[in-house]
Specification:
The structure is a single chain. The chain is of the alpha/beta class and 402 residues long. Helices cover 33% and strands 24% of the residues. The chain folds into 2 domains: 179 residues, 3-Layer(aba) Sandwich (Rossmann fold); 209 residues, CoaB-like (Rossmann fold). The protein has an 8-stranded mixed sheet with strand order 12-11-8-13-16-17-19-20, with helices on both faces. The protein has a 5-stranded parallel sheet with strand order 2-1-3-4-5, sandwiched between helices. Strand 1, helix 1 and strand 2 form a beta-alpha-beta unit. It is elongated, with a radius of gyration of 26 Å. It starts with 5 loop residues before the first strand and ends with a helix. The chain binds cytidine-5'-triphosphate. Cytidine-5'-triphosphate binds next to helix 11 and strand 16.
Amino acid sequence: MLADKRILLVIGGGIAAYKCLDLIRRLRERGCRVRPVMTAAAKEFVTPLSVGALAEDRVHSDLFDLTAEHEIGHIRLSREADLVVVAPATADLLAKMAHGLANDLAGNVLLATDKPVLVAPAMNPRMWSHPATVRNARQLAADGVRFVGPNVGAMAERGEVGAGRMAEPMEILAAIEAYFAEAAAPGPLAGRRALVTAGPTHEPIDPVRYIANRSSGKQGFAIAAALARAGAEVTLVAGPVGLADPPGVTAVRVETAREMLEAVEAALPVDVAVMAAAVADWRVASQASEKIKKGPGGVPTLAFVENPDILATIGRHATLRPRLVVGFAAETESLIANARAKLAKKGADLIVANDVSPETGIMGGDRNTVRIVEADGVTDWPDLPKGEVAEKLVALIADRLR
Ligand code: CTP
């Protein structure tokens, strides 16, 4: 399973670095290609000579070495791998990764990579349980970094016992194998096409002013990312938000409801559409071509016209209606009754209903409490991070499409 897989192994400066030699040997035995990157501190614990000899490859450690033309740049180095493994992942390396610091080759490679990252933390138990490290590890886990260990046991420092020992080489190897086994398995949505709308829309009043709402786009982006992880081919049509394109997703950026509808129709046909955008219901009837000025005429009066309903257009599409149409219902009162009404009115199969009253903190926040409304019933989900709501929704979508 590991034959010909390419591992970029970042070795940090910790006493556990010696275990890396064994890890490299075991990876090589299985036909894995190992390209080592050592931090300056790592070289205090094991020599580049032994690392390079076991890896049968050159050891990279100096950022500026790589700028020479005959050398491979750190961007290439970071991408020419199937998996990045950090072992030992010291407290310093974890902090660097959590904050995106790139002041050496290891930091650059870890920031520039577009590949999954597995870390094997190793440090003194007090360092591992320090709130700063706990914060960093939590952030990294939220960023999708995988962890193996640390284990509980005796430390290099005499008399110290606790969590912080690096996982054994065979355990790291098993974690690497588990990753590749998972990556090789087709996701539950492999071969399916999905469409997601997210974020607010901006409806211009004049060249400098617009109508908007408080949607952050976080929930829709998390759903697009989760659909892609499940193997779907995903188009994300996003209103103006400051979020990066999720990996593996085709993102189309739009501003107004009418542009959003156009982009959505262009993405059809799809198997599933998830309409998470907070589309402005109205736009200004006639957008002023010049900035509206204060004047003797008093305050301006805006006339509105209704925007197209994107969900209803898709849910009632005569020829290209997706098999599964998922809508959202953002309500501040009568949640279920309103969600049921939207299900029927817009031709959706499923409505994710949430209470967006300001005191819930859902609009713009990182958590969401939703109720799933379908024709035959309502299911309540607990209060969850938006990423977990996305995972659960994608599992439900896969089930409904089956
Ligand atoms: N929606 C849409 N196009 C619109 C308005 C809403 O696609 N012009 C979609 C949203 O993406 C969401 C669902 O319809 O999936 C419900 O959105 P919501 O704002 O809760 O409902 P509205 O239809 O706007 O109804 P109201 O504002 O009256 O509650």
